[in-house]
Fold this sequence. Notes:
Layout: H1 2-14, H2 20-145, H3 149-165, H4 173-183, E1 186-190, E2 196-201, E3 208-212, E4 216-223, E5 226-234, E6 240-245, E7 251-255, E8 259-264, E9 267-272, E10 281-285, E11 290-294, E12 298-303, E13 309-314, E14 319-325, E15 328-333, E16 337-340, E17 350-351, E18 358-364, E19 369-374, E20 379-382, E21 388-391, E22 398-404, E23 407-412, E24 416-421, E25 431-435, E26 440-445, E27 451-456, E28 460-465, H5 468-478, H6 485-492
Antiparallel strand pairs: 1-28, 2-3, 3-4, 4-5, 6-7, 7-8, 8-9, 10-11, 11-12, 12-13, 14-15, 15-16, 16-17, 18-19, 19-20, 20-21, 22-23, 23-24, 24-25, 26-27, 27-28
Amino acid sequence: MGGVLLACGAWFIHTRDGDKDRIHELEAQVTALKQQGLSSELDRSVSEQMEIIAHGQQALSEERSQEAIRQSAIAQAATIRSEAERQNAMKAQAAAETSAAEALASYQMAERQRRDAEHARMVTDTLNYISLGRTLGSQSYSIYQTGNTELGNMLAYASYLYTHDYGGDLYTPTVFQALMQSAGGRLSWNRHNGNITRLTLSPYDGRLLTVSTFGELFSHQMKGEQIQTTSLMNDKQYWFCDVYATPKGKVYAVSYTGHLVIADGRQTRVVHLETVSKPFSLQSLNDGRSLLVTGENSVALIDIATDRLLASRRLDFQVISTGRRDNKPLLFDNRGHMHLVNSLENMTNEKVPVAGKVTAYASSPKERLAAYGMADGTIWLVDGKGKAYKLVEHLSRVTRLAFNGQRLYSSSYDGKLLFWPIEGNSYFKAVTLYQSDNWLSDFTFSSDKDYILAGEYHGVITQCLISLPMIAQRLRQNVKRNFTHEEWNYYVGKGISYRKLKIED
């Protein structure tokens, strides 16, 4: 700029006489140049200031960025510490839960061990008390036989209490026989002159019907301990082998002489069975609409509604005994076979699963059991899988078999009326209900199953109480006092807490 001004000054000297307008123009230019120079200087200054400010903002931004990075690092470190603390807390919680679970497991194990020990003690005590019940029963039976009935009754009732209260089997022979002996409940009536061959209950009115070898067909009505007998037929020319009663009250009796006696109300008539030789068995067929008469070598069918002979059939085998299976007649022959009668035209033929002469048969579809009584006194019990168990107690021909629940009853010519607890098919020991001096030909149950009624040769009818609740009631009535402490210690044991049998009023 200074050079410009010097040039202008020189130009003014050389052109003193120059145009004033030109001078003014040059002055204006100078002024403009001065202003332009000042503006440039200002712009430069402002630019420098802006540059300084920009550098400051950049420094501040970098400082803030560094601070942000530092704060982020601090926050990340805090997050890492927090996660570590959370992990430690979770580990502590897991450890606490593990400790609690271990403590609970230890407690439960201790409780199980305590319960097991308690259970073992209870089982041991239970078995000991059940064993005590059997011992008391054995003592009762022996002492009662000596004539000391008072002490025998007390021991029998104590045997009942310990066996019953601790879940023992009251049908164990040593227990049940003592209970029956002390309870009594056995009655006998001599009603027939001939030998009783069969007895049954009428489904019509519950009367007991009996027949004998002397042509006697009797009806009996039980009245407490008394029996009222009515004669429906009494003719020695007949030898009755079986008796059958319909639900409507009609009674049939078959004679070995080949005759069928029909008693309907007050009317009695005799039908000669010309087509059946030596008939000895009567059974229902066709849902009770027909009566099957079985002889040694033939069978006949009688219409129950009309008493008319429907048909007969000659057999190619000899029938030695009869039974029922699947609610149908079952015939046993002399060649080791049995024949199920579906109709006269349809009879099956199958081999008896045991060897020997079958004289009695019974089956229990519910228990899937069948029993075969043999001429030599053996009883074979066959289960649903075909396995046979040999029951040995009778000494001669088995005359009758019957199931009642899980008990098998049997009678024999040896005079014994027995029952066999058969639960589990693992151990069979007979219980003697009655021992007669005569042959036992047949038995049946009362309608309520509280009694069993047996028919004997020599015409005797015997009734035995078999209901445990009624036996227990009789026992309580027969106990007149409690044990003395000396009796208790001697017969029951010093280690057993004293127990009153008779509760004073």
